[in-house]
Amino acid sequence: MRDLLRLAASPQHWLRSGRLLLALPSLVVGGCTQAELVNALVPRDDFRLTTDLSYGPGARQVLDVYRPATGEGKRAVVVFFYGGNWDSGAKGDYLFVGEALASRGFITIIPDYRIYPEVRYPAFLEDAAAAFRWTLDHLAELGGDPARIHLMGHSAGAYIAAMLTLDERWLGAGRGRIRSTVGLAGPYDFLPLTDPKLQIIFAPEADLERTQPISFVDGTAAPVFLASGLADTTVRPGNAERLGARIRAQGGVADERYYAALGHIGLVAALASPLRFLDPVLDDVVAFLGRE
After folding, report:
1. What pLDDT was estimated at residue 32?
2. Which runs of E-coded beta strand occur in 45-113?
3. Which residue among 91, 158, 274, 287 is least packed, with the fewest CB closer than 10 Å?
4. In what order do the strands lie in the sheet with 178-184?
5. pLDDT of res. 93
6. How far apart are CA 98 and CA 79, in angstroms?
7. pLDDT of amino acid 38
8. Residue ranges of the chain with pLDDT lower than 70?
């Protein structure tokens, strides 16, 4: 809890020093993860949550659905993929994301997906595609608008969202159902692989260029919003710069936004209700998703 008080007192210091509150999910304070601490401060009266719906037979092939607590009519849908270097992460840690989007009127779906060492590339993409197809199949009961289905992700999850948007291998004709895509701090153009673990994760693909979202830009995909923190030393903002430039050069639509004070975790943390003072990330995302 001291971490919460210190962040509130001096957010810029914590952002620059890399000791941001949401060092998801590695830090533990008083027996609680930092994600649990933040989620404990998130409002609970602006969404309805349904957990652990199966989209496949595996233990990690489950998802949570956040629905706005008020309002009528068909809602826009956001499928959010969390990050974790393709080897960690849990949907429950991202309640603050579900609340953020549901509070702005979006039905929000947050899937788990299989990760290393249980699987390697491309199993996490196959799971993400299966979660998207589940969403299409359940739109009516969710109250979702079939014309407004969006993808969103952070870090490795932004990679997943970008691959589903740009590479038709994963969704086939279903790719055309994506209205737009938001990527937060995503790796889109990260060869050569220098991390030994990533070399193992992506080893099943003989042609590593086919693992890179930027390789599949042809100008036909849905519009994308690429956000990065200029203080991010985990996934450099150049990933967004290069992908955005490639999309526009091919005649597609790509908006970019860079946040001077935010690092890799800070970018997604700023979506959380108690941390929105850090930067208007949520406002910018919602404005993009609401564009015609």
Report:
1. 61
2. 47-54, 62-68, 75-81, 107-111
3. 287
4. 47-54, 62-68, 107-111, 75-81, 144-154, 178-184, 224-229, 254-259
5. 97
6. 10
7. 87
8. 1-32, 292
